[in-house]
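Reopening this one. Same input as before:
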Amino acid sequence: MLSPREKTPALTLATVAHGTFDLSAETGPNGTLICFYRGLHCPICATYLTELERLTPNFAERGLGTIAISTDDAGRAATMAGKIRAVNLRIAHDLPLQKARDWGLYLSAGRGTTSIGIEEPALFSEPGVFIVKPDQTLYYGSVQTMPFVRPHFADFMGALDFVIAKDYPARGEIRGPV
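Same output, byte for byte:
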C-alpha cells in the first residue's frame, strides 16, 4: 500500500499525443494528478475522462499536471482519446500489470463484451486517482475495486485552493502499531 508523504513508484509510459510521460520529470509546482482508468471498454471511464479533459486547464492554473493511464495498448488508448476529444489531457497506455499493482490498484479479469460492445482485456486495472507532489511523494490517493462512485474532479478545485493557500499537509501517513 502506498502511504502519504512517501515516495511513489517510478512511472514512465508512452502517451497517445504528448510523447513520453515520466513522473520524475514533471514540472508542475503543485504536482501531478494521475488518473488510472479501466480502459476503452468502460463507458463510465469515458464520461469520467471527459470531465478530466474539461477541467485540465483548471488544474494547470493551480500548478497541477494531469494524465490518464490505462493498461490498454496504444490503439485502444488512441480510440479513447478520440472518444473524449482529448486535447489537454495526456493519455498514457501500456501500463504493465505489475506496475498497476505497485500503485495499489486492483486487477480484474475480462468478462467478455461490455454494454457498449467492446471486449474487455484479459486482465486490466481498476480505477485510482492520485496526486503526487513534485518530489514524487504521495499527497492524495483513492483506489477502487469497482468502476462506480469515483471522486468528482470538480470537487478537487475548492479543495486544491484550500490546500495551496494553507499549505495543508498530506494526511493518513501513520503506519505501524497503534
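So the earlier flakiness isn't reproducible anymore. For the record, The two ends are 17 Å apart (CA to CA).
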